[in-house]
């Protein structure tokens, strides 16, 4: 599994949010949804949501500081400009994402996939993903909500992104 992110538009994926200001030179504190957190700094431009519009902004500099991320964005040159960005979603276009190995998936690609057992019993669709520390968990919405560990080979036996289908070795009564 790679980089938790959330689809926000056809080709835009939320990777973080501007959560604060840092200093007087326009630096922003950023809450990153990427894993590891500093992966957000590998992307440029960032797309910031202004109302219903996305605006491309170049990432000039960035660094990890403690558990947080600091970023200096083009056109954000003072504390007031940084303060105006607080709460703004940070997104990238899907084509900016790195290529993955065959057994790796972006969370946004799994959201909406139909989930069925190895015996063909439909369980619903993946509504969300959660990190638990031990392994990721898919939240399946169907006739009831199910939390299924995303353990490839053991529980998740097949992922077909093109067909939007995930097959699991899971008891439908559980």
What does this protein look like?
The strands form two sheets. Strands 1, 2, 3, 4, 5, 6, 7 and 8 form an eight-stranded antiparallel β-sheet that branches. The protein has a six-stranded mixed β-sheet with strand order 12-11-10-9-14-13, with no helix packed on it. The chain has two helices and 14 strands; from the N terminus they run E-E-E-E-E-E-E-H-E-H-E-E-E-E-E-E. The chain has helices at residues 79-84, 107-110, and strands at residues 6-7, 12-22, 27-32, 46-50, 53-57, 59-65, 68-73, 89-93, 114-117, 122-131, 136-141, 145-149, 156-160, 165-168. The protein is 6% helix and 47% strand. A hairpin with a 4-residue loop joins strand 10 (122-131) and strand 11 (136-141). The chain has two domains: 6-95, Beta Barrel (Elongation Factor Tu (Ef-tu), domain 3), CATH 2.40.30; 107-168, PRC-barrel domain (SH3 type barrels, Roll).
Largest sheet: 8 strands, antiparallel
What is Rg? 18 Å
Structural class: mainly beta
Order of helices and strands: EEEEEEEHEHEEEEEE
What is the count of structural domains?
Answer: 2
Termini distance?
24 Å
What fraction strand? over 45%
β-strand number: 14
* CATH topology (level 3) name of the largest domain: Elongation Factor Tu (Ef-tu), domain 3
**Which architecture of the largest domain does the CATH hierarchy give at level 2?**
Beta Barrel
Instruction: Find the CATH superfamily of the largest domain.
Output: RimM
CATH class of the largest domain: Mainly Beta
- What sort of overall outline do the alpha carbons produce when their principal axes are compared? elongated
Number of helices: 2
What is the average per-residue confidence, as pLDDT, rounded to a whole number?
Answer: 89
Low-confidence residue ranges? 1-9
| Helical percentage | under 10%
């Amino acid at each position: 599994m790679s980089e938790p992110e959330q689809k926000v538009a056809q080709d835009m994926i939320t990777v973080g949010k501007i959560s604060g200001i840092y200093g007087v030179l326009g630096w922003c504190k950023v809450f990153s949804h990427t894993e590891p957190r500093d992966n957000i700094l590998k992307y440029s431009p960032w797309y910031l949501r202004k109302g219903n519009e996305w605006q491309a902004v170049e990432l000039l500099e960035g660094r990890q500081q403690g558990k947080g991320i600091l970023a200096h964005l083009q056109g954000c040159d003072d504390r007031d400009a940084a303060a105006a960005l607080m709460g703004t979603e940070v997104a990238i276009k899907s084509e900016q994402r790195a290529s993955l190995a065959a057994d790796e998936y972006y969370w946004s690609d799994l959201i909406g996939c139909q989930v069925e057992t190895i015996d063909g019993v439909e369980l619903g669709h993946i509504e969300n993903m959660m990190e638990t520390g031990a392994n990721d968990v898919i939240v399946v919405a169907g006739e009831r909500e199910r939390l299924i560990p995303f353990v490839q080979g053991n529980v998740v036996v097949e992922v077909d992104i093109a067909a939007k289908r995930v097959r699991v070795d899971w008891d439908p009564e559980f």
